[in-house]
Amino acid sequence: MKIIETLIPSRRDTMIPLTVVEADSYPARLLICAHGFKANRKEDGRFVTVAKALAANGITSVMMGFPGCDESKDDFINYTLKNCLDDIGTARAYMESNYEIIPDEMGMIGYSMGGRLTALYIAEHPEIKCIGLWAAASYDGFDSEEDFLGVSLKHIYMETEEKGYCDFHNEFDDTWIKLSKGLIDDMAQLKPEDGLKGYEGCALVVHGDEDITVPYAVAENTYAKLEKAKDKKLLTVHGADHGFGAWNDRPDLSAQLTDGTIEYFRKHLA
Questions:
Q1: Sign of CA dihedral 88, 186, 113, 109
Q2: Residue ranges, CATH 3.40.50.1820, the chain
Q3: Which side of the chain, N or C, has fewer Cβ within a 10 Å radius?
Q4: Which parts of the chain fold into alpha helices (H)?
Q5: Global confidence as pTM
Q6: pLDDT tens-digit profile of 236-267?
């Protein structure tokens, strides 16, 4: 098992930071890991923990930093769901070109907004046979929400219509960023629940019962929408908020998240 750090060109002529955790043997199944809103590609090491454990099971993993996140030098205004999906496709193509990947047996894990991306991606990619949805924002629509991470949608819509972006205070890292009109339009128009409803692979839904960022009811809805799944499991991490212990020094909660994911992917993807 070896960990590779590299940069690859995006379709926007920017560079995507990439982490590859190589499998112990090839050909290998590919696991794609999609991080959350303004997060880092390794999700505080949790993606790497899962990837390292699965390397011995013939699974190679790739993690990419989305526009304006992580070590990306791209401007955050380019963070849209469509651009993130483009970067997922670019990272996958890189892996298929540089490693011996089994084409029809892939997996994907998405955390928070990465879970939304995962639900969108599987709608057009039936080769994704196993998914992990960590505190996933995998619900349709945006207009029905009152706010986005504490900022009223009315304000966001008005400002993005006027300027093409909204100045937004991100409480996760206490920075000011620009939410693009493209992101807001993608959130309103793209339908992750379509991907969930049509998915025929295996699905693990993991959610903390004290999550107020993406409420636990979203996980219940996600689980219900996976009506065609070959296998599905809802893993509730009791006492966990949206950070699964990363925000309140509870490594035991992160361990439940990663251990449960490793066990499920060993059974359904390895």
A1: negative
A2: 3-140+191-268
A3: N
A4: 46-55, 81-98, 113-122, 153-163, 181-189, 192-198, 216-225, 251-268
A5: 0.96
A6: 999 999 999 999 989 999 999 999 999 999 99
